[in-house]
Structure formats: structure tokens, C-alpha cells
Design goal:
The chain has two domains: 118 residues, Archaeosine Trna-guanine Transglycosylase, Chain: A, domain 4; 71 residues. Helix content is 31%, strand content 23%. The protein contains six helices and six strands. Strands 1-3-4-5-6 form a five-stranded mixed beta barrel.
Amino acid sequence: MIRQSDLPDTIPVFPLPGALLLPRSRLPLHLFEPRYLQMLEDTMKTSARLIGMVAPNSGSGDRTLHTIGCAGRVTQFSETEDGRYMVTLAGVSRFRVMREVSGFTPYLKADVSWTGFERDLGKAEIDKGFDRPVFMKTLSRYFESQELSTDWDSLKEADEELLINSLSMLCPFDPEEKQALLEAPSLQTRRETLVTLMEFAMRGGQNEEILQ
């Protein structure tokens, strides 16, 4: 079990719009830009092997990154014949960006704080309010409305954290909506946000107050 004290104060960050990584989940990445190939090489030399996934900040202000991201440990990587890498990150913990660090490497780094995300390092969360039949009915209508397909047998058998987090990562929500899912303080809150976003999409995006 990883302890918060084992996590580094500064990590490389990969600002990728629309990509969401959550604790105890896995995110495949395709790296080909020279700066991110360098980031991977440097990361593999560290004991933690952490890369922070954080969304670019599209709002006003000096920050180029959102305040909260999620760090993943490189658990798998393979090189293609043309020098690109297929990488898998296993979500470890969310973090808060304290300061963006640039200039020393071709990629961005950040000083981060792990405080407040101790739960991310524990066992899988339980959503005590989870009603699977009702949730699956909403999910079925959402997938039909968005013309999406999936392996329904696998979804029916998945435990609630894997189900909710996987859908949060894979569903075609916009970057700000995915940020709201990332920042949800509990699995139950994430599930409630996920349901709200699916219902919002099925209504054609008519409720502008959805994330207020």
C-alpha cells in the first residue's frame, strides 16, 4: 500500500484535454511528441514512476492548468516500430497543483500537494446509495441516445467503483464535465454527477444550471 508520505512533491504533468484518470483506474496513453517521450524516459528513472494527468485550464487567469489532477503510475509500456510508445497509467491519487514548474525540461512539471486525497490511496470505495437496476436503465437510455455500444454483460457484473469510474473516464463528456467528475469528493457524488450529465445529454443540453 502506497503512503501519502511516499509520494513526491514535484511530478511531471501531461495536460491532455478530455482525458480523465481516476484512482484505482487505468488509462491508456499514446505518446509520440518528443517532449513526452522525454517525460516517459525521465519518469522511468524514478522509483515512483508517476505522471500527473491534469486538464488545461480554459478559463481566464494566469494558470495554464486546472487546480486538481490525478497521478498515475506507469505500469505498462511498449514501443512501436516508428518510435512511439503505448503506455498504461494506473491511477494512484489526485493532487492539487501548487505551482507550475517550467524551463528545466521540455515538458511541464508541477509542485503538488496530496493533502485532502488520503482516501484515494485506500481500498475501493463503496457507494451505499447505488441502485444498480435504476442506474443501468439510465445508462441504457443514454447509450441509445448517443448511439454508443458496449459489453453489457461486463457492465452488469462490474463492482460499483469500477463501473462508475470507467464510465466517467470513457463517456464523451466535455472537458469541464470530466473535471467535475474528477473533483467529486466521493464515489456517491461522482455517480450522482454522472447520472446528471447523462440526463443532461439526453435532454440535448437544455439545462445550463446542471453543474452549478
